[in-house]
Please model this.
Amino acid sequence: MNNKALLAGIVLLVVVLGGLALVSKKSNQTSSQTTQPTQLTQTTSIPKQNNDLVVKEVVITVTKTGFKPQTVTVKTGTRLTWINKSGADVSVNSDDHPTHLLYREFNLGAFPVNSSVQLVTSKPGKYTYHDHLNPDRTGTVIVE
Model:
């Protein structure tokens, strides 16, 4: 009977240690996926076939009163970064509310306070969006 109890104890110990290892690994993966907000506008030149392609980042801050700036005009290839400073979760989604079918690439989803989401513009057009959790917060991106 002692051998069975010892074997059961060893199996239980292995299961507990394995579970702790999985939880630790998952915790590390989750923390490495957290997006830190960027508050600077930066320009980077990337050479491409003897022409310089300028990649620009535009930061849009989400506040309690809405998107700041509410309307931006950018070039194709510009990185848009929404930073949540509203005090609550927000969800950037394309119009029409609540279906979000007009511009699916603008369906960035929910993100918590002090984090950010990003989108690189790919084609010219006028794109309207809103905070799905507070649809009175609206914004417009014009891509030239």
